[in-house]
Amino acid sequence: MSAFNKFKASVPVAWSPNLYITLVRGIPGTRRLHRRTLEALRLRKCNRTVMRWNTPTVRGMLQQVKRLVAVETEEMFKARKENEAKHRALRPPVVVSHFPASAANSSKQP
């Protein structure tokens, strides 16, 4: 969740045509107005992301629930997803030899 904190409520949203909105805090315990706003944005569960057009209406809704959501531009969203994919990518296995270097060399030579 700390990865979202640097994007949260500080994104320059005026120049991006699409906004990626992620619900990062839970809905229970929030005001009814905030719940209805999240419902209008189609955010129902935590850590779900939706794409919305960057319009004044959507920006006003985001201003209302800015403590509950993280807003990313299209470039930021793609970069984050790419970093997550790289992190999950398969890595070559680590091979550890428990023999000392001299013993490993002498055991191979008859």
TrEMBL record:
Which family is it part of? Belongs to the universal ribosomal protein uL30 family.
What would be an example GO MF term here? structural constituent of ribosome
Residue ranges of the region described as Disordered = 82-110
A Pfam entry, by short name: Ribosomal_L30
* CDD domains per UniProt: Ribosomal_L30
Q: Which organism was this protein described from? A: Hibiscus trionum
Protein name in the entry: Large ribosomal subunit protein uL30m
Give the GO terms filed under biological process for this record.
translation
Tell me the keywords, alphabetical order.
Ribonucleoprotein, Ribosomal protein
* GO cellular component terms, A-Z: large ribosomal subunit; mitochondrion
Q: Where is each Large ribosomal subunit protein uL30-like ferredoxin-like fold domain found?
A: 20-69
Species lineage, top-down?
Answer: Eukaryota, Viridiplantae, Streptophyta, Embryophyta, Tracheophyta
